[in-house]
C-alpha cells in the first residue's frame, strides 16, 4: 500500500472534519473556561490563542465577553468567521505575537495548543507575548496534555489508536501512533488516514511538547505569573468530565493538565 506523506494537517485544513472527529456539542471546553474566568474575576476582554474552529471563542462571546480568536491556520479562521461568529478572528503565531499592549484581561489556550511551543525559546516567546497582551492582573487559562502522565506509564504508547467515523458520506479511519522523543522532550504523533473513497492513505506527523507541571510552574513564575490553579482535573477532557459546581483538583498525575495563572499587578512588560 502506498502512503503519501503530507506536510498539511487534514484536521486543521478541514475544520468541519475536526469538529466531527472531536465533537463538543455541550461546549464543555468553553463553559469550563468561562467558569475559570468568573472564579478569578477576569474582566471581559479575552484572547483565545490557537482558537481552532472558533467554537470556544464563540461560547465565551455568548457569555458576554469581548473575544478575539487567533490561530495560524487560515482554514480554521475562515471556518470560525462563518460558523462561530461574534468574536473577531485574526491570524497570529503563538510562538510570538503582538496584538496590542495590555489590551486583554485573559488569554486562554485550550486543547494542548500551548504544546505547539516545542522549544524553550517558543515557550518563552508565548509567555512574553501573553505578558505584553495582558493588562496588570490579567489571567492565563490553559488546558493540555500532562507530560508527567508519561513518567512510568506506557498505555498510550503501546498500541496505535484507531478511530473510524463518517463525514459527508465518506468513512474515514485514522490510525495514530505516539512515541516519546526524550531528547527533544516531545510526544511525536504519526497519524495515517484512510478513507473508503479510494484515495491513497495520507501520513501526517506532528508533535506536542512534553511539559511537566513543575516546569510549567517555574516558567510561569519566570515570566511574572503567579499560579492560582495547577491540576489534572476535573476538566473538559477528563474522565469523568467537569461540570458546573465542581471544584478544581490538587493533583497533577492524570493525563490532562489545567492551569490558571495571574500576571503580577505591575504595568505590562516593555
Ligand atoms: C488541537 S487544536 C485546538 C483548537 C481549539 N483551541 C480547541 O480547543 O478546539 C490546535 C490549534 O492550534 C493551532 N496552531 C498550531 N500551531 C500554532 C501556532 N504556532 N500558532 C497559532 N496557532 C497554532 C492549530 O491550527 C489548531 O487550530
From TrEMBL:
InterPro entries: Methyltransf_25, SAM-dependent_MTases_sf. SUPFAM superfamilies: S-adenosyl-L-methionine-dependent methyltransferases (SSF53335). Keywords: Methyltransferase, Transferase. It holds the Pfam family Methyltransf_25. One of its GO terms (molecular function) is methyltransferase activity. The keyword Transferase applies. Residues 46-138 form the Methyltransferase domain. GO terms for biological process: methylation. PANTHER family: METHYLTRANSFERASE, SLR1071 PROTEIN. This is Methyltransferase.
Amino acid at each position: 500500500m502506498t502512503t503519501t506523506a503530507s506536510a498539511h494537517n487534514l484536521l486543521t485544513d478541514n475544520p468541519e472534519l475536526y469538529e466531527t472527529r472531536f465533537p463538543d456539542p455541550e461546549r464543555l471546553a468553553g463553559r469550563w473556561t468561562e467558569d475559570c474566568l468568573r472564579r478569578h474575576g477576569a474582566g471581559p476582554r479575552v484572547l483565545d490563542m490557537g482558537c481552532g474552529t472558533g467554537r470556544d471563542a464563540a461560547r465565551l462571546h455568548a457569555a458576554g465577553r469581548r473575544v478575539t480568536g487567533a490561530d495560524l491556520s487560515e482554514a480554521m479562521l475562515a471556518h470560525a468567521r462563518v460558523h462561530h461568529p461574534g468574536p473577531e478572528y485574526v491570524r497570529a503565531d503563538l510562538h510570538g505575537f503582538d496584538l496590542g499592549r495590555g489590551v486583554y484581561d485573559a488569554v486562554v489556550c485550550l486543547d494542548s495548543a500551548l504544546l505547539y511551543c516545542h522549544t524553550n525559546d517558543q515557550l518563552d516567546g508565548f509567555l512574553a507575548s501573553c505578558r505584553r497582551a495582558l493588562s496588570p492582573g490579567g489571567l492565563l487559562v490553559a488546558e493540555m496534555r500532562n507530560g508527567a502522565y508519561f513518567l512510568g506509564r506506557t498505555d498510550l504508547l503501546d498500541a496505535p489508536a484507531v478511530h473510524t467515523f463518517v463525514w459527508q458520506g465518506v468513512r474515514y479511519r485514522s490510525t495514530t501512533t505516539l512515541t516519546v522523543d526524550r531528547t527533544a522532550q516531545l510526544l511525536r504523533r504519526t497519524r495515517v488516514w484512510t478513507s473508503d473513497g479510494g484515495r491513497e492513505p495520507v501520513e501526517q506527523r506532528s508533535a506536542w511538547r512534553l511539559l511537566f507541571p513543575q516546569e510549567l510552574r517555574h516558567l510561569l513564575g519566570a515570566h511574572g505569573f503567579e499560579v492560582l490553579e495547577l491540576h489534572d482535573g476535573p476538566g473538559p477532557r477528563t474522565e469523568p468530565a467537569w461540570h458546573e459546581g465542581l471544584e478544581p483538583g490538587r493533583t497533577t498525575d492524570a493525563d490532562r493538565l489545567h492551569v490558571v495563572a495571574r500576571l503580577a499587578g505591575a504595568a505590562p512588560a516593555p
